[in-house]
Amino acid sequence: MPINIPNDLPAARIFEEENIFFMSERRAHSQDIRPLRILLLNLMPKKIETETQLLRLISNTPIQVDVELLQTASHTSKNTPSEHLLKFYKTFEDVREQRFDGMIITGAPVENLPFKEVDYWEELCEIMRWSRTHVYSTYHICWGAQAGLHFHYGIGKYPLRQKMFGVFEHRNLSPRHMLMRGFDEVFWAPHSRHTEVRREEIAACPDLEILSESDEAGVYIAASRDGRQIFVTGHSEYDRMTLAGEYRRDRERGLPIELPRHYFPGDDPGATPIFCWRSHASLLYSNWLNYFVYQRTPYDLSQLEREGDMQG
């Protein structure tokens, strides 16, 4: 079954061109099943690009999914047309009384700021606190993973001497874990960040387990032992040319930026990168949706509050 999105969302036109199956709202509502409800908190500046990348991955499962797009009210986006935000995005006050099977919290280009200096930090903390009783499983990406690890478990965020930028080799540390089911022993995934979390802090937390890491990029995937919190420090959702776009943007701005590592063939920025992480990304999201959302979430979402209270 496909993802359910509005017909006039920009992603719909892209998915038609890519022959990706999606379902219109009208057709989805005529089916006598309960689709998964996924809340996407989009903190990235280019929201249309990010929502398209993530919706593409969410659609690659046999499960019907209804997606609600969420933005913070305490931050004004400068890189997404206001008409798009008004038409397709809600704020926390709009969804506060609702419950969701899953939530995705994206990264954000604010990793050099202390958490408390991010203008929407208090609002994000309120959303993450609310998610304990109103969302079954939350998937955190890059800075969103750092923010979630800090909020839920007190894990620190540390500056890197050089930006972690490129596509890196990772090891599957827990092949029997359901999130890692079907993964190769070694796989590739992109990173783009100026800060890191440290393995020793995560390993010292009894409620967390490290599922994948890289010799170059460090911890990649960690999860709470109950599967309610998933943390991914990279960007498996990135398209083939996303890192190239970031590299050229920073070069044009005169910022100190090195070539993304293991990305351009022969380190030639004019060469087309090999899209070597696409199957990993699809498997990661389908495993999360299947094993940690669809298979576990209560059919009656009102039960979430009681389970969240037990989670503490």
List keywords for this structure.
312 residues; alpha/beta; Rossmann fold; twelve-stranded mixed beta sheet; globular
Describe the SSE topology.
Blueprint: E1 3-4, H1 10-17, E2 22-23, H2 25-29, E3 36-41, H3 47-58, E4 65-70, H4 82-88, E5 89-90, H5 92-95, E6 100-105, H6 121-134, E7 135-141, H7 143-153, E8 158-172, E9 186-196, H8 199-203, E10 208-214, E11 218-224, E12 229-232, H9 242-252, H10 278-294, H11 304-311
Parallel strand pairs: 1-2, 1-4, 3-4, 3-6, 4-5, 6-7, 7-12
Antiparallel strand pairs: 8-9, 8-10, 10-11, 11-12
Helix pairs in contact: 1-3, 6-11
What does this structure look like?
The structure is a single chain. By secondary structure, the protein is an alpha/beta fold. The protein has one domain (about 5-305): Rossmann fold (3-Layer(aba) Sandwich). Helices cover about 35% and strands about 25% of the residues. It is built from 11 helices and 12 strands. Strands 1, 2, 3, 4, 5, 6, 7, 8, 9, 10, 11 and 12 form a 12-stranded mixed beta sheet that branches. The longest helix is centred in the last third of the chain and has 17 residues, at about 280-295. The two termini are about 35 Å apart.
Short description:
The chain has 312 residues and is of the alpha/beta class. It has 11 helices and 12 strands. The chain starts with a strand and ends with a helix.
